[in-house]
Amino acid sequence: MKYIYLIASILLITNIFAQKQKAKIYPFKSAIIEYKYEAQLSGTHIKYIDDYGYKQADYIRKEINLGDTEKKYETIFIYGNRAYTLNPLDTTIGMAKNNFYPYYFKYKNKTGVEINEAIEASASGWKFTGTKQFLGKECKVWESGKSIRYTWNSIILYEELNFMVMMVENATKIETDVKIPADKFAIPNDYKYSPSTGQQIGFSDLDLNFNKIKLVETKNKEKDDGKSNKATEAVEEITESNSIKIEFNSDDYMNSKEYTYYNEKGEIIKFEGINNYNSYDFRIIKSQERAFLNKELNLSKYNTAIFKTSKGDYGKMQITKLEDDGFSYQFIIFNKNCIIKEYSKNTSDGLKDFFAIKPDERNRKLIITPIKTSTILIIE
Predict the structure, then answer these.
(1) Would you say 254 and 122 are in contact if contact means Cβ atoms under 8 Å apart?
(2) Please, where are the H alpha helices in 92-151?
(3) Is domain 31-216 given the CATH code 2.50.20.10 in the classification?
(4) Contacts of 1 by beta carbon, 8 Å cutoff, 6+ apart
(5) Count of CB atoms within 10 A of residue 43's CB?
(6) Helices (H), 59-111
């Protein structure tokens, strides 16, 4: 009996130790990195790292200058497998799961830096193409299409993104093994909880391919082979039926098959959708705004439409019925804080203030015409 108690005690102690175990993500204990934004961006970003990466804080204050200036101010705290996104403009905070964290325990024979690089290479297609001195550090150079980044110990020190516009983030100062004030990781008490601000950070369930982080000797090999990389932004194609076909690279959207939506009371709103209706959340919808059109479009029963209303809110819709005796659709409208503002499972006029909607002659598609400044995009 004594042996049983002894074994049970050992198992209990081992379990408690395992629960308290922290992954060593970076080879240094702490760091402070200061960035500035350039090109179509302006502003600053300060990153704090402590406890070998278990604790991280990113203070991002950037403005996107594309005609109208859009402020994107946020503070992201990461504590192991937990993440919090704070919006200082409206003092809201969203909780999220850090999907990166389990990888550090799954691949115990790899360093945190190797795992970080493998995640980016496996999920987003970045290719290691050489090295470069930057801020006195020997950095790895990564390329993806026309975009480029320099990393040191898997931390991005320079990034130039070239999709529809050029956006540059440039580190100006880096310090390691310095004391980080505790308040840099403290969540303010006066922030309001916003349940839909972000459900997860990072990619989940990836089978990491560590061969992808090896040096690529021949750059742009895909182009040499006559192949092209899948676009990371929406690709617009006008078809004969005046529809829009949009192709997304799902790797860029965290490989999520379904999102959970909440209203302002924190209640879950569940939508059943055909195709990828549940796969497009607020962040994805908003990221495609530049591809939205104000012209008449045709929505089929097996496609999803994402839109922006004349009031500035974002949303998505999908046909639930299209028969000779009528039609109906379901939709969600998000407010600017990405909380669900309005929704309906079956309606034929729920969006009448923003779009004129009618079936085509054969009742196979809905003809959607934006009203005033509303815009829309049809995606497969």
Answers:
(1) no
(2) 103-106, 112-124
(3) yes
(4) none
(5) 18
(6) 103-106
Q: What is the pLDDT of residue 30?
A: 97
What average pLDDT values come out for the chain (380 residues) when binned by 10 residues?
Answer: 44 44 93 93 95 96 82 92 90 86 92 94 88 93 90 96 82 96 91 64 82 73 37 30 43 45 65 68 73 88 88 90 91 75 88 94 90 88
pLDDT at 205: 78
| Tokens of residue 144, six digits | 């993806």
- Please state, in angstroms and rounded to a whole number, the distance separating the CA atoms of residues 373 and 294: 7
As to burial, measured by CB atoms within 10 angstroms (0-12 exposed, 13-18 middle, 19+ buried), residue 319 is: buried
Tokens, residue 112: 């945190």
DSSP state of 195: T
What confidence score (pLDDT) does residue 206 get? 82
For residues 55 and 111, give the distance between their C-alpha atoms in angstroms, rounded to a whole number: 17
Burial class of residue 304 in the structure, from the number of CB atoms within 10 Å of its CB (0-12 exposed, 13-18 middle, 19+ buried): buried
**Can you give the pLDDT at residue 372?**
92
User: What are the backbone dihedrals phi and psi of residue 153, each rounded to the nearest 5 degrees, phi first?
Assistant: 50, 40
Provide the 3-class DSSP secondary structure of residue 117: helix
SS3 377: strand
Residues 6+ apart with CB under 8 A from 247: 230, 231, 234, 235, 380
Q: Where in the chain is the domain with CATH 2.50.20.10?
A: 31-216
The position carrying tokens 């991005």 is: 156
Report the alpha-carbon distance of residue 62 to residue 325 in Å, rounded.
Answer: 51
Quickly count: other Cβ atoms within 10 Å of residue 324's Cβ.
Answer: 8
Q: pLDDT tens-digit profile of 104-125?
A: 999 999 999 999 999 998 888 8
Q: Note the Cα 120 to chain centre separation in Å.
A: 13
CA distance between the termini of the chain: 64
**Nearest-angstrom CA–CA distance, 199 and 263:** 14
Residue partners of 117: CB distance under 8 A and separation at least 6: 128, 140, 151, 154, 213
> Taken in order 38, 156, 61, 375, is the CA torsion positive or negative?
positive
Cα angle 62-289-257, degrees, rounded to a multiple of 5: 95
Nearest partner of 117 among 166, 125, 319, 109, judged by Cα? 125
